[in-house]
């Protein structure tokens, strides 16, 4: 995957997420997340986020915001939409797991609330 920084924008392939320069950041500044597709229900934190922070991301030219529910360390996934228990976790338009419980928008999405879907013999209808 290609990655480059261009005039305060972080670019991954065809995706684009805006980011403020260090001169624009203050203690009360909105935090940023990278979301690659409108189909995704999670995005990656590009900085440490704590509960209560306002978080923004841009996808399809539209800016979206939410309030972080809990701590989301740099590089971790955050839910950008509510995800029901057993619902697919979608990142880069790909299913990367399923919710082990209901996940609210703004929550950290990690091993405590995600289950794998591949290579599991306990899931009905799985093909070898």
How do you describe this structure in short?
The protein is 0% helix and 38% strand.
Description:
The protein has 128 residues and is mainly β. Residues 1-27 have low confidence and may be disordered. The radius of gyration is 15 Å and the shape is globular. It has strands spanning 3-6, 9-12, 15-18, 31-34, 42-45, 54-59, 62-67, 77-79, 88-91, 94-99, 108-109, 114-115. It is built from no helices and 12 strands. The strands form 3 sheets. Strands 7-6-4-5-8-11 form a 6-stranded mixed sheet, with no helix packed on it. The chain has a single domain, classed as Archaeosine Trna-guanine Transglycosylase, Chain: A, domain 4, CATH 2.30.130.110. It is 0% helix and 38% strand. The two termini are 29 Å apart.
CATH class: Mainly Beta
Strand order of the largest sheet: 7-6-4-5-8-11
- Gyration radius, in Å: 15 Å
- Sheet bearing the most strands, described? 6 strands, mixed
């Amino acid at each position: 995957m290609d990655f480059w920084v261009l005039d305060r924008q972080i670019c991954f392939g065809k995706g684009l997420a805006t980011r403020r320069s260090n001169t624009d950041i203050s203690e009360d500044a909105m935090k940023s997340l990278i979301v690659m597709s409108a189909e995704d229900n999670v995005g990656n934190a590009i900085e440490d986020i704590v509960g209560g922070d306002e978080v923004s991301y841009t996808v399809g030219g539209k800016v979206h915001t939410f309030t972080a529910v809990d701590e989301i360390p740099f590089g971790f996934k955050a839910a950008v939409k509510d995800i029901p228990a057993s619902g697919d976790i979608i990142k880069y338009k790909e299913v990367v797991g399923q919710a082990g419980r209901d996940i609210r928008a703004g929550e950290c999405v990690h091993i405590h609330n995600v289950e794998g879907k591949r290579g599991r013999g306990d899931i009905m209808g799985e093909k070898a």
